[in-house]
Amino acid sequence: MANLKVDVEPAEAGFDADRLKRVDAHFDRYVENGRLPGWLAVVSRHGRIVHLGRGGHSDVEAGTPVETDTLWRIFSMTKPITSVAAMILAEEGLLELDDPISQWLPEFASPRVFVKGSALKPYTEPATEPIRVWHLLTHTAGLTYGFHHGHPVDAIYRKAGFEWGTPPGADLASCCEQWASLPLLFQPGAEWNYSIATDVLGRVVEVVSGQSLDEFFASRIFSPLGMTDTGFVASSVSRLASLYVPDPASGRAVRNEAFGRLGTSRPDCLSGGGGLVSSAADYWRFTEMLLRGGELDGVRLLSPRTVSLMASNHLPGHVDLEEYGRPLFAEMPFDGHGFGLGFSVLEDPVKARTLSSAGEFAWGGAASTAFWVDPDEDVTVGFYTQLLPSSTYRLRSQLRQLVYQALVD
Fold this sequence. Notes:
Helix content is 30%, strand content 17%. It is built from 13 helices and 16 strands. The strands form five sheets. An eight-stranded antiparallel β-sheet has the order 3-2-1-16-15-14-13-12, sandwiched between helices. A two-stranded antiparallel sheet has the order 4-9. The protein has a two-stranded antiparallel sheet with strand order 5-6. The chain is globular. GO terms for molecular function: hydrolase activity.
């Protein structure tokens, strides 16, 4: 179990200690009025933790307080880990970003694209370009999520059993076969749409490496980095936080037993897009590895050039998602943000109306967890709670404001 503790005085790291207290006061108000069950925030600079705040409960009903070793379902914060896995294989020459994924997943050899019609009677045409590894990493493959409710293809996904999960008994291989049979929203590379692309990427990792996704993660990422509390099953179910949703009438967080079972046993489908459980300490080590150009404590997972490529905006012409993406849900705002290989990338802080730095790369999870890496200021930040969905409150933008108003050097 990785240790998590403050190891530098705020002033030594350029922070105002009194201003950092605003982080705790702000999120404690969410707990006091019942909108959040509990929370934990980690602020680090120059590789040292400058602030560690927590409040509320990991299990409200049991009265269990949030601890520094509480475990959290990180949902889509799994995506950057899967993206790193793919880039490890790329660095070994086992795949290239331009490779068609049908090279390993033949079911994707002849994708068809939705043109018109309805979910019940779609009209499709052949894809003019193969789905490539790069399309999966950048969410430009034409795939989607059933929970979007913005397009007939979303409804086709829901009918096939893909909305907030996968059909019972279906493993990752069979899910990919089903996804390959469904129409694409658009021609590969034509637009950006948040999707199951990273799940498909996880299957590519399995086939290329010859390992199951959990085995690859454990042997190539988690074990080398000392991430002993990260996996598709909680390392300790007693430390796993309960999951909550807002009550439609009162807004207070109420327990959700159905989603709360996630992480308590090995899932049928190893979701590289959203299946992991982790601790704040483990994920801090992951983000520090990224901040340091692929290396941490003498262990190198990626080269600095690879991390730099991943953290660059890959949208054509360096446009932001507002110009290139579909106006649907994603784990970050669209204005001023581009997208790299597995992360959002902040292009224009003014357009994004944020105090963060250009070049920040970040992502979040469905239960309102979030992280960002700011190479310009040598800062990493992680936030953990268990409230579905992440769009309930503006927790992430509020946290950025609170962190950067305290950075005074």
